[in-house]
Write a structure and sequence with these properties.
InterPro entries: PP_kinase, PP_kinase_middle, PP_kinase_middle_dom_sf. Keywords: Coiled coil. GO terms for molecular function: polyphosphate kinase activity. Pfam families: PP_kinase. With 173 residues, the chain is α/β, with parallel strands linked by helices. The protein folds into three domains: 37 residues, no CATH class; 86 residues, no CATH class; 36 residues, no CATH class. 32% of the residues lie in helices and 16% in strands. It has seven helices and seven strands, in the order ββααβαβαβαβααβ. The strands form three sheets. Strands 3-4-5 form a three-stranded mixed beta sheet, covered by helices on one side. A two-stranded antiparallel ribbon has the order 1-2. The longest helix has 12 residues. It is elongated, with a radius of gyration of 28 Å. The N terminus is likely disordered.
Length: 173
């Protein structure tokens, strides 16, 4: 997350929330000597292992699943690059993770998806770089069955005459 700032002129400055917290740790932990701050993020296993077909109350099942996620096992640790090895080792051990498979050292912000909310115009410019959405062509048989296009035949009559091959997603029927 970030915070908008800046005075006048229409310019904006953003500060990641982890940097804001790090700069005020002495106030949060009064009397303690702060040696450093290294943000990290842990991810829990969010896999649903319930069977909706066997459930009598789906809402209650989902509420229970959300409550149980607090106790789900950890599957990933992301830590800011440059964090002391002993700190990373301690977190890895306490979270019961595999140091080579589950620990990621991140050079930038831990959650880059937060940046999308800052600049909607960046999203618009990214859309300009994408291929245009594909518009499927209409199957010929549909045109023959559409009264708006002069067709008088029903779709069922057209199918009775012959099979109609429709190639999805290229043709719309």
């Amino acid at each position: 997350g970030g915070r908008e700032g800046g005075a006048g002129g229409g310019s904006h400055a953003f500060l990641p929330v982890e940097e804001l917290i790090a700069s005020h740790l002495d106030q949060l932990f009064g009397g303690w000597k702060i040696l450093g701050a290294w943000p990290y993020r842990v991810t829990r296993n969010a896999e649903l292992e319930r069977h909706e077909e066997e459930c009598e109350d789906l809402l209650e099942m989902m509420a229970e699943e959300v409550r149980e996620r607090m106790f789900a096992p950890f599957v990933r640790l992301e830590v800011r690059a440059g964090a002391p090895a002993d700190l990373v080792d301690l977190l890895t051990e306490e979270l019961e993770l595999n140091a080579t498979r589950d620990v990621y050292h991140v050079e930038s912000l831990l959650d880059l998806s937060d940046l999308r909310t800052l600049a909607p115009e960046a999203e618009a410019s990214a859309n300009a770089l994408r291929f245009p959405r594909h518009q499927p062509v209409e199957a010929c048989a549909r045109q023959a069955c559409d009264p708006a296009r002069g067709g008088e035949e029903s779709i069922f009559d057209a199918i009775r005459k012959q099979d109609i091959l429709v190639h999805h997603p290229y043709e719309s029927f």
